[in-house]
Amino acid sequence: MTELVGQAGLAGLEAPSGLPAPSPLTVALLRPLRADHCLVSSVEIERLSAELGALVAHRPGGPFRLTDYLVRTTLWPSASPGPSSPFAWSAGTARRGIGLAAVRTLVAGTTQSPVDGVGLAVSRAICDERGGRGPMSSMGRWLAGLTAAGRAAVQADAVSWATRLWNSLDWKAFDTPPVIGRDHWWDSPHSSLLAIRSRAEVRGSSTDGRGNPVSVHLVVLGGPRRAAVRSELSLVALAEALRPGDPRPPGRIVGWWPDSGHFVSLEVDQVTLSLGVATVARTVALLGASDRGSGAAA
Amino acid sequence: MVPVTLQPRRAPQREVLVEVDPGPAGPGSTRTGNAGTAQRDVLARLRDRSTARPRFDPGLAGGLRAWLEDGAGVLVARRGDDAPPLHLGPRLLLGHADQNSSSRQGPSRQREDYPSQVVTSYLVHALFRQLVTTGSVGDPLTDALDALGLHPNRAGLVRHVGLLDRRARSELRAELTNQIGHLRELTPHFAPGWLPRTDDRVAIPLAGGRVVLCGVFDLLVGAPAPGQASLCALQLTSGGPWAFARTALHYLALLETLRHANPPFRLGLLDSAVGRYVIEDVQQEHLRAMASHLVTRLALLAGADD
Q1: What is this structure's pTM?
Q2: Is the CB of B197 less than 8 angstroms away from the CB of A164?
């Protein structure tokens, strides 16, 4: 596993003559992998898949639908103190979804600014709700019920979120249009008890040392910088490596903290995927133990 | 009322500071006549010479960070490696106990004690965000509560306001009406292309994350550009000490320098309580002075100055 820790603005990168330097985060995400980087073989991927299936077999506490959030709060509960409460829409929970929709329209050229993009995303969600178009969206329903001031507060949060992401990357540096904010799930073919989510805000392409395409993934992180972040990102790497459907193997996962400008970059190799499997094993074990404990208490 | 423009001693080539204070708000004074004027003036001063973006020493951010890391290291050594991370906002670092705008910048309030100035500050900031986002505000109290009600960690404050008696509520509404009036006069409409965004949080970890310097920009405009200072920061104070609010703004400029290697090139401070404002350029001396101040405060916290 190769790990690069950097900070936006401090990398001192050279730009091609006459062009402004790309942002360090763009370079960290899109630069080619090292020449000696070894992609993980398909045989090894199949072995990992079987190993994961065996991990959850006969394990109490399942089914296990693992997300980076669940991993963080299970393995490092002090990272998220406070009582857990049922999900409810709020300015905080809505900003990512609206912000991603806004950045999607910006990248597509449909809108020209985060303010416009967020306005469009909100009005689309409300129109879909009121017009009965598309699947029922709980966020659209919630937005439609807000006062103008409440909606403005939601938009303000989403604009700030979207602007940070929009400003962080040089979008023209992507060879092909990036995918914005589509979460992927890997469902174990060996066990119906295990699924792993790969959450990433931006997905693009780069190349390995031989010039073959690989996928690269930017994950927006919150909270403090923490040693556990490598485990959280390895989960994304694992799900991407195991997931069928993308002919490009995953090459790199970059986690970025907008609050501080720091980022951490993991290249996806055998060590990273082994860390992912170990993370799944520890999480499943703890979840199973807590389930057994609560069952005993009941 | 004709605004009084104070122009302290100028630097040889660059305008350092322009402060505009319309004077105390008397009962007969009216701001409506100056509304467009003040807005235009704020905008003009933010834009003035903005095409000539200043360049800062590329090594400045690294040097300031190293200086602060030394100070944080002393503090961490004193507290021990197992101590929980220490989150420091401008109020704590500057040794200021006043509950003004910067009091919003720390972790969410644990106790439900809401002095009137704190309540006003939260509500005015919610209205400021609405004004920047939509350009309009309806009934100030209703709108502010609607906005804050969407943030679960503000539920206590909203509940507190809901329990106020009729007289206290009327006073609060009158105060908000006064302050939003000033904000309407002062706050320019920023075109979407300026990328205006509110409540932009900055958190700079030091000593491996054991000390975190935190702050929140009320409003940022512009996009970070490698090698250039390209942002304007506009901060709001709703009645706290003016001098502290300006110092806190320099603190935020330092945090932005550590985050993106360049500070904002210009800072603005709006006082919604009386309708005054100041626009100033950021200079390296400001950043060095603030870093020095912070290192001193870190040493004081560590008790290392004995």
Answers
A1: 0.87
A2: yes
